[in-house]
Write a structure and sequence with these properties.
This protein is 48% helix and 22% strand. It contains two helices and three strands. Bound molecules: zinc ion (ZN).
């Protein structure tokens, strides 16, 4: 592993405050993922088999883990529209947390160097 020059603790602290402020700004978060599916049914004369086909759906499902088990729930189009940003917020929060973790590591290294 190449040896990196430890960063200035003051610079790291400034970045930490900035990240903490961004985390504080985050609205509601929702865990899990969304799947949107359009289906064909079994009836040969249905519009879903026409040309061009008019498929059934969208069927929106929200999947998440609860105590290690996968839980799936249907959502309406209206719900998807309303809660989609909350799923995006969750991703954003995860990104910010990993940046904060990286920063913690850099700070530990900087503290050792500046001691
Ligand atoms: Zn059909």
């Amino acid at each position: 592993m190449p040896k990196r020059t430890p960063k200035n603790p003051t610079t790291l602290e400034r970045r930490r405050r900035k990240l903490a402020a961004q985390i504080a700004e985050i609205d509601h978060i929702l865990p899990g993922s969304i799947n949107i599916a359009m289906n064909r049914c079994g009836k040969p004369n249905c519009a879903c088999h026409a040309d061009p086909p008019k498929l059934h759906g969208p069927y929106i499902t929200w999947t998440r883990k609860v105590a290690g088990k996968t839980v799936t729930r249907r959502l309406s189009t209206e719900q998807l529209e309303r809660y989609k940003p909350w799923f995006e917020n969750n991703h954003r929060l995860q990104t910010l947390i990993s940046e904060l973790q990286t920063l913690g590591i850099e700070r530990l290294e900087a503290d050792q160097h500046h001691r």
